[in-house]
Design brief:
- The structure is a single chain.
- By secondary structure, this protein is α/β, with parallel strands linked by helices.
- 37% of the residues lie in helices and 14% in strands.
- It has two domains: 137 residues, Rossmann fold, CATH 3.40.50; 182 residues, Rossmann fold (3-Layer(aba) Sandwich).
- It has a seven-stranded parallel beta sheet with strand order 8-7-6-9-10-11-12, with helices on both faces. A five-stranded parallel beta sheet has the order 2-1-3-4-5, with helices on one face.
- Helix 13 links the parallel strand 10 and strand 11.
Length: 339
Amino acid sequence: MDRHVPRLLYVCTPGHTRDVFPPAVYERLCANFDVDANPGDRYSSEQVEELIQGADALITGWGAPKVTPAIMEQADSLKLIAHSAGSVLGLLDDVVDTLREREIRVFSARRCIAYNVAEATIGTMIMLSRRWIDHVGNTRGGGWRNAEFTAGRQGLLGATVGLVSASAVGREVIALLAAFRTRVLVYDPYLTDYDAGALGVERVEDIDELFTASDFVSLHAPSIPATQNIVGKRQLDLLRDGAVFLNNSRGSVLDHDALTEAARAGRFQIALDVSTPEPLPADHPLRSMPNVHITPHTAGTGAYGYERIGETTVDAVESFFGGRPFDGEVDLSRWELYG
């Protein structure tokens, strides 16, 4: 009897495939499965609805259309959704109950994005604590050494680093911080003492304590109702002079009005890769402050993480259809914590 070869409806565009699937990895996917690949333009939800019947898995990525209840009605054979990108929140939030009821499994390559965000976080910590941007501006303007940018500065080595959330990104940051002999504090109501010990960090129960004690504070919390404006005036006022404050998570976790007020004092350095709204208006005061450094939501970019998106996606699909567990599974029972 012929073995059934699972059919994969692959809705990623050729551009996405080039970005995150190394040629050998994509060829492996096509060799082992019946891949119904997107020939070009971005699919609409209606097109996926027409094509999903008989598909054993749906492969999505950046720019993939939202999975709608109408799609799920036609998805008579669907067993797996594999998302070759990060968050699945906007992709699947209308069909989560259906996925649970039908025990359809979900994979996300968000940890691969976390590698890149963690690298950007560490790089930004070093850059701002060493005041490299200020030094470059000073020398470019004809100056040389400026004591304001050098005297008594706490670099990352030996610092106390506070992380808000032990998310996928937060855990990658923790791993990289090990090279810098840091003391790491983590505020995360879902982090157990056991997990904190395994990660080699100190769990703090009060976010104010983290802001008071840290030389660096980095936000890595998801955008969920419980984290809305979790950082505001009270916490920012507790930051010590000369500290470095970063947000590479979601703009909604930070009160931007409070940050604007705190930034005007110039007491600490600020890096934002995300904001609310995004982008900030052209005349927003945060854009022009010398101690505020804004990047256009690029922390997640990078060849290392991108290439592993395709690898881990194909690994997950192969493992699933081989009856094996796979890394990167989305726990649908904890959906409310994804954001």
